[in-house]
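Re-running the complex after MR caught last week's input typo. The corrected sequence lines follow. Everything else is unchanged.
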Amino acid sequence: MQQSRRAAELKAVGIGKSYGAFHALKNLSLDVGRGEFLTLLGPSGSGKTTFLMILAGFERASRGQLFSDGIDITDQPAERRSSGMVFQGYALFPHMSVAANIAFPLRVRRKSEAEIKRRVGEMVERVGLQGHEHKLPAKLSGGQQQRVALARALAFEPGVLLLDEPFSALDKSLRGQMQAEMKRLHEETGTTFVFVTHDQSEALALSSRVAIFNHGELLQVGTPQEVYERPGNRFVAEFLGEINMLPLRDIRPDEGGAKGLCEDREVALRFAPGEARGEAILAVRPEHMSIAREPAIAENSIPVTAVSSTYLGSAVRLDLITRSGSRASVSVPMEAARFALEKGNTVWLTWPAERGLILPETV
Amino acid sequence: MFARSHNLGAALLLAPLLLLLALAYGIPFLGVMKWSVTLPEPGLGQYHALLTDPLVQSVFVRTARICALVTVTAVAAAYAIAYVWVRGTPGQRLAAEYCILVPFWISVLTRAFGWVALLSNQGLINTWLRATGILDEPLALVRNEFGVVVGMTHFLIPFAVFPIASAMRALDERVLLAARGLGASRTRIFWSIFVPMTMSGIIGAALIVFVFALGFFITPAILGGGRSVMVAELVYLRIFQSPDWGLGAAISITLVLIVGLLTTALFRFLRPSQMAG
Ligand SMILES: Nc1ncnc2c1ncn2[C@@H]1O[C@H](COP(=O)(O)OP(=O)(O)OP(=O)(O)O)[C@@H](O)[C@H]1O
Ligand SMILES: [Mg+2]
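Corrected-run output:
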């Protein structure tokens, strides 16, 4: 990835935001690296937009400090920060043509007409809007308006581009296409991107790192793989995708990992927090589990019975119940499902030691 | 598309109003039209006079000039009031609301005489100017076009506020935020985003003010003191004082035509519902 000479590095230290007695953001510290694609992910009302507005300078933080390339910008208003921003609903200037929209930040900066013309042409081409330059935004499709918003926000080569759920108004196929285009734009411009979404698959697919928000708190930051495979707590584990949770007791450290009892069978975990002792939750993603007729020798296995199945085309989703009454689900080939579903058959739910996670008992 | 029965129902509901309009305006209008081509003798003589009589012409020109001036000043003032009303702090909004509503409770006659009390040679302003020694001779603020423009502007501002405020309310806040984020100063945002995006309200307000102003009678009669006669007053003079009913009728019909054309334009810019604010 080429790095833009202007890509900015952001640092938030202890940011808090209160509306009266309500704390929309609580003591949030986060570093955004130069040229990074960071996604803010969280459920509705978790404070993603609030944080983005503070990064942009549209809202003032109630507490904490904000740095851009080491300079304190906490009190700098939005118009002086010059971060590109793409709003939900695009917020294009309806009375200006596509070209005039893209030229706006350049006009504001008093660039020469020649340079404006060159730069607008470049941006129009970059987002694939050739031939639409003289149209008004209302005459464009949703995807095209989205592209204008991206081009306008990137036209003045901002150090950071902030995007608040830019694809929420697009249908699914267009969404996928725009995601790919945004990834390409990120690589071409090298600018730092901070992207808000509440769609976990979008976050995992696009970002270099994901920051997970809940109730105004930053729960975990990491690469998509880290947060998906090593969630720090139950909320993150569940928010990023389906996950099976089984009670685990008698936990003790073992060769860097841990051992414990699950459904009265000894199971092994390759990774475990050093302090893991006693009781906790064992979490395993369904795609890392399978079923077998006999207990596996090299893997963990517990006995289960099948409750119901859902046909998914390429596979069958089986809903299972353990002897102690915990529920789990797994996607398996049709053959395996058929055997499991025959009345009274006990099958074995198996998973490798490196796929099990220990999550604290409390949320 | 509405179903047919829907149209029929709407027509039935509107029928009493249409009947009232026909009786109260349609029939008298036809009567006036008839006078204009029959008095004192049949033919288009009065319309010819209207186009050639220098006195009538000067009144039309003066009316156009006053209406244009009033439109500019009233719309500008209304824009400022609407801005505060829509975008001000809660206290400012309340103040703006009073500015808009209070004038509606005071009759046009009272307001006109109020301005006379303020602007006349013995009025508050001139008394103060002389008392403080700023001027020796009173300023001619009333019984001229200046007084008429002031009084009419004051009367028409509230009517201009509503279409402007409704255009301002329809504006998406995020567009203004976007402009700020792109680096634009407040002045820049106002002139290149806010004003163009509320232009439909400005045009609607201007047409409303202009059309209302064309037919003004009481305010110019009092504040103009008979020296700044406008079209409506001229009609009154022709019919009740000259009496020259034919010419008065022809002027009336011409005025109605102009108003009709402007109203058509108005409806092309604004849907009627938008005017209610
Ligand atoms: N101006 C405000 N006054 C009071 N509360 C506010 C204000 N702005 C936001 N909030 C509250 O702060 C919380 C966080 O809001 P925010 O818009 O940041 O959530 P979000 O994560 O962006 O959610 P969504 O995914 O729905 O957009 C919400 O509970 C919201 O009601
Ligand atoms: Mg939001």
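None of the earlier attempt is carried over here. Chain A has a mean pLDDT of 89. Residues 295 and 325 of chain A are 19 Å apart (CA to CA).
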